[in-house]
Amino acid sequence: MPAVYIVDDDDEDCDLVMKAFAKSNIPCRIRLFSNGLDLFRTLEHTSPPEFPSFILLDLNMPIMNGFETLEKLRADSRYRTIPVLVLSSSSYPDDIVQSYDLGGNAYLRKPHSFRTLVEMINLTSQYWLRSARTPIHRLN
Fold it and tell me: The domain that contains 110 carries what CATH number?
């Protein structure tokens, strides 16, 4: 079963995203991390076949924020091909540009309604878990 990693320090946002995944009816394992450092502690002990199919990454977090996390993911050849989708409440143009400049695969704005979040998670999951192929898939 594919894995999705969510890196976000906001418990309420994580809970909503988890509920949206449940409503999407696309089977996947979800792992939650409160910052980039926690993510890397897990990735260090994970073999490539067990890497996530994609990472949903918030920008504003303590210890290691989303930009730092994205930069470190792309700098390490082991993690470079893991799709990273920034999921942020920011619509600040510089945040969007910097996310793509650092190698993000998509920038998604956290919606204000749960219904829209469910639609976003469903479309995102359909694409990244059922349609897109990444180098990780050839290892599975």
Answer: 3.40.50.2300
